[in-house]
Amino acid sequence: MRLLLALLSSALTATLLQVFANLAPDFPRSLGRLQGEFDFLPIFFLLGALAALFLGLPAFLVTKHFKLANIWTSATAGLVIGGLIYLFIPSMPFEDGPQPLGAIDLIRNYCQFGGIGLVSGVAFWLARDVMRPKKAPAEDTF
Fold first, then answer.
1. CA distances to 30, 53, 132 from 40, in Å
2. Which long-range contacts (CB under 8 A, 24 or more apart) does 59-67 make?
3. 16 SS3 class
4. CB half-sphere exposure, 13, CA atoms < 13 A
5. For 24, which DSSP code?
6. Count of Cβ atoms closer than 10 Å to residue 52 Cβ
7. What is the pTM of this model?
8. What's the rounded Cα separation, in Å, for the pair 17 and 113?
9. d(CA 138, CA 85)
10. How many CB atoms neighbour CB 18 within 10 A?
11. pLDDT (tens digit, 9 = 90+) per residue, 50-83?
12. Measured between alpha carbons, how far is 128 from 130 in angstroms, rounded to an integer?
């Protein structure tokens, strides 16, 4: 149950960050597009949940198997997975069909997806850590 909640928090974090990343370039004027971005929330959440389930969970289980699971490995795995996801997305923008991007755009988009993955990895670890049962403090034996 704790792992499921951590996966959902990771997907929700990626969803919200993607919406805000889409609105950020022209922020004051982009508030009019807010409703349009919220129309894509289910799609963003589905993609985030699939990424968390099929890429993030195996990465966590591998690091846990080797006793390397911590917040840093979760953040690093999120960064790498977010960057890998960008490699599978066709060139953007789609308004006039796919168009090739320049090197600066590729780096910017890779950093955007990698950053979203990094924050989602941290959200996964924090949600998993918060849900962990607390150990009872040891009693003094004087």
1. 15, 20, 33
2. 60/124
3. helix
4. 24
5. G
6. 28
7. 0.78
8. 10
9. 45
10. 22
11. 999 999 999 999 999 999 999 999 999 999 999 8
12. 6
